[in-house]
Write a structure and sequence with these properties.
homodimer, TIM Barrel, 2 domains, six-stranded parallel beta sheet, globular
C-alpha cells in the first residue's frame, strides 16, 4: 500500500453513499470501519459469517478497524471506566455493554480488517494532568492485554500513543507503547478540546521517535491542509469523517479551496465542480448549478456525488504528496498547494 | 424507443440516488420529471440555461415532463381553481403561484423534455358526477389552450383522458381529447380514492379507442402485476414512484416477489438480493445480509442499491413483456410471471 494515504471512514461498514467500485476509482487506499458501531449493529458475528468486513462490504482493498474506544468516550455518555475495561450504554438503544481489551481485540479479529487497534482511552484535553497520567498508564496496560489477546497472524495490531498536551506524558506513553513492540503505531489525535496547533506540537514531539520502518498513523485529521502538515511530520496514515461529512452538507473540497454549494453564486454556475478533478462528479458533465440544486433539495445523488468527489480529492492530494516526497520537493509542493487552496477559499 | 416501457420518476431532476449511467444500465427507457417541483426549485430558467433537463441532469435518453397539475391537486392544499387556471401555495414555502395551460406548456418547453403533457385536473374519485363532468370539460378546454400555446417542434405534447369512474364521462373526455389530435394520449390513472380494479375497468374502456399508432400512456402505475395488466390493455408507457419509493423503505421487487429487507430473516442471509437479476446490487456480490444491514441503518448506499435494483427489475420486466408480445405468448408469460411473483410474496 502506497503511503501517505488518507483513509475514508466507513463507519457502519459503508463509506456513506459509495460502492467499493467508487472507492477504488476515487483512489481510496484504506477504508476504516468502526468497531463500536459494527459491534452493536449488525454485530460482529454477522460480519464474520459474511467473511469479515471485506466479504460483508465487498471492499477488497486494505481495511482498518478502530477499537471502539473513541466512540465509547465520545458517543456513550453513561459509561463506567475501570481497570478491567469500560461499561457503556449503546447510542442506539441505551442497552448496556462492556468493552475490555480482550473483547475489542477479538471483535476486531472477527471483523477481520488488515489492521486492528488497541483499546485506548482518549480523555478530553482539559482533563487534569493527574487524569491524563492515570489514563495513559491504563491505556498502556490495556495495550499489553490487547497484544496478548491478539492471535490473528494475518492482521496487524497497532499501538496508540496518548498523553494529552503534556510533553512528558506523551514521552512516557510513547516509551510504554514502543516497549510493547507493535507492527505499527498511532498517535491519538484531535479529539476533544485541544487546538490543532497544540495537537501538531504533540505530534511533532512523538512522530520522530516512532520507528520509520513501521506505519505511523495519526488519528482524526482529514482537512487537506492538516493532512499536508502531518505528512510533513512523517505520518503515513490518517483518517477523518470530515471529507465525507462535509460532502453531505454540500461542501466540496476543490483545488481552489472549499466551496459551499448552498451558496447562491452556484445556482446558475454551469462550470464543473472542480475543473482539475477527474472524478465522476466532475468528469461526467454535472454542473455546479445541478449539484447545487441537488444539495439544496437534500437529494441522495448530491450526497453521493459530492462524497465521491471529496474522497477523490483526498486520494489525489495523497498521490501528489507521494510524488513530491519522491522527487524531494515536498515543502515547495505544500507551499504552492496550500497558498492556492487558501487564496480561493 | 421500445415499448412498453416503465418510466422511473425523477421528481426533482434526479431519480433519487441514481446517476444517468445507472439508469442506462438499469434499462430505463424514459425518465420523468415533475414540472411542479422543477418550476418551484430550481426554476425553469435555471434548467433552460443548462440546456433543458437533458443538459441539466446529464440524462441523454428520452424524457417526459408532467404538467404539474397532479401535484397542484395532491400536494398544494390551498388552491383556487378557475377557468383561467389554478392558483396554489408552494409545498416548499407557501408562496403563491398560478398555473395556466399556457404557463405549464411554456414551462415544459423550457424544461425541454421529449414529451410534455397538457395541464389537467385529476379530481378525487369520490367527487360528484357533476364535478367530474365540469372538470373533464374544463380539462378539455385547457388541453386546447395547451395545444395552441405549444410551439416547440422537437417536443410532443400529449393529451390526457379524464372522467373519473363514469364510463360515459370517460367516453366524453376521450372524444374531446381525440378531437384535438395529439401525437400521444395519456389516461389519467390511479390517483385519489378509486380501487385499482375500477381504474382498470376505465382503462379497458378507453385504451382500445386510442389510436394504436400513437403512444398510449397510463399515468401512475408501477407495481409489477399492475404494469403487466395495463400492458395487456395496450398501454405503451407508465410511470410511478412506487419502485423507487419502496426501495427507500427497504422493499425490493424480485422475480420471487416483493421482499422487505427489514425482515429479520434476511439478517444473516448471504445470498444475493435476486439471483436472476444482473444489476449492480445483485451482480456485484452484495449479500441480502449486507443490504439488510444498510437498510436498517438507513444508509445512503441502501437507498442507492435497492433503487437501482427496483428500476432494473422494472426495465427487465418490460423487456420480457416486449419479447413475449413479439412472440405472441404474452398471456402465458403474464400467467407464469405473476403466479411465481405472488406465490413467493
Amino acid at each position: 500500500m502506497p503511503t501517505p494515504t488518507f483513509m475514508p471512514v466507513g463507519t457502519k461498514g459503508t463509506v456513506k453513499g459509495l460502492t467499493p467500485g467508487d472507492l477504488r476509482t476515487a483512489g481510496a487506499g484504506v477504508v476504516l470501519g468502526n468497531t463500536y458501531h459494527l459491534y452493536l449493529r449488525p454485530g460482529v458475528e454477522v460480519v464474520r459469517e459474511a467473511g469479515g468486513l471485506h466479504g460483508f462490504t465487498g471492499w477488497d482493498g486494505p481495511m482498518l478497524t478502530d477499537s471502539g474506544g473513541y466512540q465509547v468516550f465520545s458517543l456513550s455518555h453513561k459509561r463506567r471506566l475501570s481497570e478491567e475495561g469500560v461499561e457503556f450504554a449503546s447510542v442506539y438503544d441505551g442497552s448496556s455493554h462492556s468493552f475490555t481489551p480482550e473483547l475489542t481485540t477479538r471483535a476486531q479479529e472477527d471483523l477481520g480488517a488488515d489492521v486492528a487497534m488497541v483499546l485506548d482511552e482518549c480523555p478530553p484535553a482539559n482533563a487534569s494532568r493527574e487524569y491524563h497520567e492515570d489514563s495513559l498508564r491504563r491505556t498502556a496496560r490495556w495495550a499489553k492485554r490487547c497484544k496478548e489477546a491478539h492471535a490473528r497472524e494475518d492482521q496487524a495490531l497497532f499501538g496508540i500513543v496518548q498523553g494529552g498536551l503534556y510533553p512528558d506524558l506523551r514521552r512516557e506513553s510513547l516509551e510504554r507503547t514502543l516497549d510493547l513492540d507493535f507492527p505499527g503505531y498511532a498517535v491519538g489525535g484531535l479529539s476533544v478540546g485541544e487546538s490543532r496547533e497544540e495537537m501538531l506540537d504533540m505530534l511533532g514531539l512523538v512522530a520522530p521517535e516512532l520507528p520509520a520502518d513501521r506505519p505511523r498513523y495519526f488519528m482524526g485529521i482529514g482537512d487537506p491542509v492538516g493532512v499536508l502538515e502531518v505528512i510533513a511530520l512523517g505520518v503515513d496514515m490518517f483518517d477523518c469523517v470530515l471529507p465525507t461529512r462535509l460532502a453531505r452538507h454540500g461542501a466540496a473540497l476543490t483545488n481552489d479551496g472549499r466551496i459551499n454549494l448552498k451558496n447562491a453564486r452556484y445556482r446558475r454556475d454551469l462550470g464543473p465542480l472542480d475543473p482539475e478533478c477527474s472524478c465522476e462528479a466532475c468528469g461526467d458533465g454535472y454542473s455546479r448549478a445541478y449539484l447545487a440544486h441537488l444539495v439544496r433539495e437534500n437529494e441522495l445523488l448530491a450526497h453521493r456525488l459530492v462524497t465521491l468527489h471529496n474522497v477523490h480529492v483526498m486520494g489525489e492530494l495523497c498521490r501528489k504528496a507521494r510524488k513530491a516526497i519522491k522527487e524531494g520537493c515536498y515543502a515547495q509542493f505544500v507551499e504552492d498547494w496550500v497558498s492556492r487552496y487558501r487564496k480561493a477559499s
